[in-house]
């Protein structure tokens, strides 16, 4: 009979043979909850020894804190599956639901950049259920310390461990909320948490996702606002949603970087009370950086830093008042200004009777990697596409601008030219058009398609930098993110470009068979897609949205100058002609011209010496499609390189 393990301690007897563990009711031991697969692991008696075997699960199985595939279970060993912990005692397993309490120890942690000390050696410990506040002057290294403790960045020296293991090996049990908001304001609260759960908790089904989201909403008192858009919430409520995204996987340690910034005193007090609640009942260590001082008495420990990353105090909030000789915590900042940081450091060491250990360089070889949790990139891409589409259509003003401009531009292009602009000599459709005007119209179509792709993509990555950086840190693959962006942007730019071609050619027909219309449209769409690739490169490389916007003209102007419409290739200098070959608009223009037999049109018109030789409008349209596809591959490879590089630095 299957034995279900719940909230209370349960003894599971092992009588030989095999124990199967997982969510399915047919297992010997049923384990419900996040991070548990239907068939997760087995315990078998093999050769007189008990062996634990992970069944190739996405979230993995840990034995004595280490991820395993197969391992022998010794007496007293601890098995961790999702939030479940099973301690083996000779012939039975004592099971307790809930993540284990983790103690953090930092020894001699220091950070040095460009020859300058950002954070001098600091040692401290954080116990389960402890609420720790880090305060100090601007530039004192508070955020640097927090990132090092959370395993977000690697210190130059020292070591950070959780229950004796490197913090980098247990990142799945750490939550980190940066200063920037890590939720999308256009989503509702439950939508944001639903997407976050699907991305952060691989292998969970919809029922488990809903249960997890409901738990977090209740824990943060956000249930009444679950269907409210995040952008319509108060500052404190938005901060709670950001915290909620980190509570989805029940972290044993939670780090928050200035979570009360910008809040009024009442909201700040409420947030500090919330952090107190998140710490103690759940035996969860909570560490926060703050400038606010009115609620520091709620904390168990206060860490004070001075400029230069010097640790000046570590102890209880009441002891801090005595140490600095001030009546209230807000006066600590004035006290730090009155004496050099080295003096406060010396007083702290005298008070404790021990000096901080000297900083020793971190040894990369001894750093254990985080356990490899298998993530399904395709599943992640599906979630990200769904989220992106929801965000796109919810921003109605942006969607209206992107699609509303198409008919206006199409009408502007069409009415620049006479109605029979594409009429051929001898076609019987009236006065033949002028090849120069035909080339100009095609050029305007190509550059407009490029504009569509470039303007829609150039800010898409940089505007979500805070969100994507955090999601990458918890396992969202950059490839899934790039695929989601490309999927939606390709669809948008294709719709824009097809509509553009339809409106223009409805008013100014090509005087060609249907295959020519199809070829021109495909080439225009490909040109727009290449521009999407360029826009994503710009967005991935830029640090701010303004920076990305300012680069758009730099990328667009060469397409206008060197495409071959302003100055025909035959009349370019050799150097400029060589440069124009790497301008993809040239290939879009040459391809669309070839599709409408532009080479023959130019040759027939003996009166115009346009400067287009026999090599420009030649070949077959599919050849130009291949060339544009190569450009597309190159730009997407560059975007992938930039994204993967940023993930590594993050």
Description:
It is a single chain. With 650 residues, the chain is α/β, with parallel strands linked by helices. The protein folds into 3 domains: 10-95, Tumour Suppressor Smad4 (Sandwich); 104-181 and 252-352, P-loop containing nucleotide triphosphate hydrolases (Rossmann fold, 3-Layer(aba) Sandwich), CATH 3.40.50; 377-646, no CATH class. Helix content is 44%, strand content 17%. The chain has 19 helices and 22 strands. The strands form 4 sheets. It has a 6-stranded mixed beta sheet, with no helix packed on it. Strands 2-12-11-10-7-8 form a 6-stranded antiparallel beta sheet, with no helix packed on it. Mean pLDDT is 85; it is low at 355-372.
Please give the number of β-strands. Answer: 22
Give the helix/strand class: alpha/beta
Percent helix: 40-55%
Over the alpha carbons, how many angstroms does the gyration radius reach?
Answer: 31 Å
The mean pLDDT is: 85
Largest sheet: 6 strands, mixed
Estimate nothing, just give the exact number of structural domains: 3
Separate helix tally: 19
């Amino acid at each position: 009979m299957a034995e279900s393990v719940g909230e209370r301690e349960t003894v599971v007897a092992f009588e030989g043979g095999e124990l199967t563990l997982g969510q399915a009711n047919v297992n010997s031991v049923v384990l419900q909850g996040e991070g548990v697969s239907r068939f997760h692991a087995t315990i078998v008696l093999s050769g007189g020894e008990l062996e634990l075997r992970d069944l190739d699960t996405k979230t993995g199985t840990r034995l004595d804190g280490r991820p395993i595939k197969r391992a022998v279970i010794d007496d007293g060993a601890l098995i961790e599956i999702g939030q479940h912990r099973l301690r083996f005692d000779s012939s039975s397993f004592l099971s307790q639901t809930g993540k284990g309490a983790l103690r953090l120890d930092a020894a001699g942690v220091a950070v040095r950049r460009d020859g300058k000390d950002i954070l001098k050696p600091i040692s401290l410990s954080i116990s389960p259920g402890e609420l720790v506040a880090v305060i100090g002057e601007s530039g004192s290294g508070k955020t640097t310390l927090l990132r090092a403790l959370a395993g977000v960045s690697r210190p130059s020296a020292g070591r950070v461990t959780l229950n004796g293991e490197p913090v980098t090996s247990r990142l799945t049990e750490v939550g980190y909320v940066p200063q920037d908001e890590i939720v999308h304001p256009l989503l509702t609260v439950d939508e944001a948490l639903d997407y976050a759960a699907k991305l952060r908790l691989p292998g969970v089904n919809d029922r488990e996702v809903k249960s997890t989201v409901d738990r977090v909403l209740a824990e943060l008192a956000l249930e009444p606002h679950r269907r409210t858009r995040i952008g319509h919430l108060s500052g404190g409520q938005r901060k709670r949603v950001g915290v909620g995204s980190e509570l989805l996987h029940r972290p044993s340690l939670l780090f928050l970087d200035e979570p009360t910034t910008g809040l009024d005193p009442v909201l700040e007090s409420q947030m500090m009370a919330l952090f107190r609640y998140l710490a103690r009942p759940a035996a969860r260590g909570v560490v926060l950086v703050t400038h606010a001082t009115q609620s520091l008495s709620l904390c168990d420990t206060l860490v004070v830093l001075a400029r230069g990353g010097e640790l000046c105090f570590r102890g209880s909030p009441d002891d801090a008042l005595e140490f600095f000789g001030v009546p209230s915590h807000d006066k600590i900042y004035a006290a730090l200004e009155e004496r050099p940081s080295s003096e406060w450091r010396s007083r702290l060491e005298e008070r404790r009777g021990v000096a901080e250990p000297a900083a020793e360089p971190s040894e990369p070889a001894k750093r254990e990697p985080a356990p490899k949790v298998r993530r399904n990139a395709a599943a992640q891409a599906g979630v990200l596409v769904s989220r992106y589409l929801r965000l796109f259509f919810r921003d109605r003003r942006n969607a209206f601008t992107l699609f509303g401009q198409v008919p206006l531009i199409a009408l502007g292009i069409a009415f620049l030219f006479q109605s029979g602009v594409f009429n051929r000599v001898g076609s019987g459709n009236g006065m033949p058009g002028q090849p120069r005007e035909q080339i100009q119209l095609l050029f305007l179509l190509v550059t407009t398609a490029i504009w569509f792709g470039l303007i829609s993509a150039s800010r898409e990555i940089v505007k979500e930098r805070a969100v994507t950086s955090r999601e990458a840190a918890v396992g969202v693959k950059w490839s899934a993110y790039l695929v989601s962006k490309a999927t939606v942007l390709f669809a948008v730019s294709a719709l824009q470009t097809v509509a553009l071609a339809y409106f223009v050619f409805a008013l100014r027909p090509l005087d060609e068979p249907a295959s020519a219309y199809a070829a021109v449209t495909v080439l225009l769409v490909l040109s727009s897609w290449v521009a999407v690739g360029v826009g994503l490169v710009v967005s991935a490389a830029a640090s701010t949205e303004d920076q990305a916007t300012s680069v758009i003209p730099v990328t667009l102007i060469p397409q206008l100058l060197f495409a071959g419409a302003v100055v025909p290739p035959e009349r370019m200098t050799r150097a400029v002609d060589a440069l124009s070959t790497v301008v993809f608009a040239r290939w879009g223009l040459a391809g669309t011209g070839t599709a409408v037999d532009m080479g023959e049109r130019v040759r027939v018109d003996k009166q115009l010496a346009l400067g287009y030789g026999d090599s420009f409008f030649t070949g077959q349209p599919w050849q130009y499609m291949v060339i544009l596809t190569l450009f597309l591959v190159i730009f997407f490879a560059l975007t992938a390189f930039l994204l993967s590089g940023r993930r590594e630095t993050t």
